[in-house]
Amino acid sequence: MSKLEDILQNEVASEINAIATEAEAKAKAILDSARQKAEALKAARERQLEAEYQASLRRAESAAELTVNQARIAARGKVVDLVKAEAVRSLQDLTARPEFGQTLEKLAEEALAEVGEAEALVLHPDHASLLGDWAKRKGLELRTDPALRDGVRLVAKGGRSFVQNTLGERLERAWDALSAKAARAIWG
Prior knowledge:
- The protein is α+β, with helices and mostly antiparallel strands.
- Helix content is 75%, strand content 11%.
- The protein has a domain at 95-187: hypothetical protein PF0899 fold (2-Layer Sandwich).
- α3 (128-138) links the parallel β1 (118-123) and β2.
- The N and C termini lie far apart (111 Å).
């Protein structure tokens, strides 16, 4: 029986080796498939992360660009405000100059042309002496108003209407056009 045992053992060993070889092959195939799936999953996740990173980067760049543009707009607004403040200051300085009487007279002539028939000329008390003679020549009562800093008001006959002509009001009316010109001059 030893030969039969040897033959059976060899067959069993052969069978075991065949089963083991087949199991190893199946295990290797399963492992290879799992590796391929894991690599594909890893590559997909990396692509997804890269896409998320790029999208996040674009959002951050857009936000930064928006912030910079807002800062530029705010800075330009401040500069235009400074230009306006300087223009207002220059107009206020003009009221202290000796030639301001001529400016007031021109403003009064323009207002008189608008109002038609006037009964009174109103101006700041500090400027009453500058247009006193002009008011007499035109047959107008001279009145003062401390709130009227840089111009004149002509009151129509009957006192129901008036025309006010001041440097500050003229600046306000022209400011949109002037500020656009100032912006072009500063930033091109």
